Amino acid sequence: MLIHIPPDGVAPGKGYSHVVVGEGRLVVISGQVALDEHGNVVGNGDAAAQAGQVFENLRRCLAAGGATFAEVAKFTFYVTDVAILPEVRAVRDAHIDTARPPASTAVQVAALYRPELMLEVEALAIIPW
Q1: Which residue(s) pair with 127 in the sheet?
Q2: Which of 12, 26, 69, 73 has its CA 20 to 30 A from that of 62?
Q3: Residue 111 neighbours by CB under 8 Å, 6+ apart
Q4: How does 99-125 read in b/e, with b if 16+ C-beta sit within 10 Å?
């Protein structure tokens, strides 16, 4: 079980938790991008479509590690333009408990490893013992 702790003296996060604590087995998911199972880019130029594929890839990776989105303690988002974050968050919110969101970091980067890609997301999950 994950415990979300609001720290004293820190402004509340909007759509994320500052502190998430859990005990169990750690599942570390490498950054996922909008590639389908054949390595083709999904949603060229479409942030929502790319986010949809990224979160489907995350779901599959979490399942391979025995986890679900309910066990995600932290996401890290790498985007080529922070202007796409509202679309990315909408997709994320369809997969998480928005009343108890994971910790999160979002970073704008100059580029990802393929120019068509707009975002990459990595996840840390904790499966209870």
Answers
A1: 25
A2: 12
A3: 80
A4: eebbbbebeeeeebeeeebbbbbbbbb
Render pLDDT for 43-83 as a digit per residue (tens, 0 to 9): 999 999 999 999 999 999 999 999 999 999 999 999 999 99
- Residue 22 in 3-state DSSP? coil
Q: What are phi and psi of 56, to 5 degrees?
A: -65, -40
Instruction: Report helix, strand or coil for 124.
Output: strand
| pTM score, whole prediction | 0.95
Find, among 122, 33, 106, 119, the residue nearest to 73 by Cα.
Answer: 122
Residue 93 tokens read as: 């919110």
What CA–CA distance (Å, rounded) separates 5 from 122?
Answer: 22
Mean pLDDT over all residues of the chain? 97
